[in-house]
Amino acid sequence: MDQQDWAGTVTVLWAESTGVFQARNLFPVGEITEDPAAGSAAASTGAYLRQLGLAGIDDDGGFGELLIRQGMHVGRPSRLQVSIPESGGITVTGAAVPLS
Asked: C-alpha angle with apex 65: 91 to 50, nearest 5 degrees?
C-alpha cells in the first residue's frame, strides 16, 4: 500500500450465518491499524448487498437487516445493526465505548 501511495482501508467480511457477518476494517498504513466499528463500511456493505439483491428485503418492501460483528481482534468487540430499506438511505446503529 505504501508503494502505491494508497492510504485507504481494507474491509474483510465473512458470512457467519444468514444476515450475520464478521468484519475487519484494516488500516495498515495508519497509526491506528484497525477500526473496531466501521459504520461507514457497514452502510456500504448494506448498499452493496441491496444492489446485488441479497439484502433480505421481504415481499412487502420490509427492511432487510444485517448484523456486523467487528473489533474482536483488537479487544473492542462491536455489534453494528444495519437496516436496509428497499430504496433510500441505509441506517447503521450500535453502541460505542469511550476510549481513555
From this structure: 80
3-state DSSP call for residue 5?
Answer: coil
C-alpha cell at 100: 481513555
Is 5 a member of any domain?
A: no
Q: For cell 465505548, what's the residue?
A: 97
Sign of CA dihedral 90, 50, 44, 97: positive
Whether 44 is covered by a domain: the verdict is yes
pLDDT tens-digit profile of 15-45?
898 889 999 988 777 777 788 888 889 999 9
What DSSP element (H or E) covers 25?
strand 20-26
Residues 38 and 32: beta-carbon distance below 8 Å: no
Is the pLDDT confidence value at 4 over 70? yes
Tens digit of each residue's pLDDT (9 = 90 or more) over 45-61: 999 988 888 876 666 55
Residue at 4 is within a domain = no
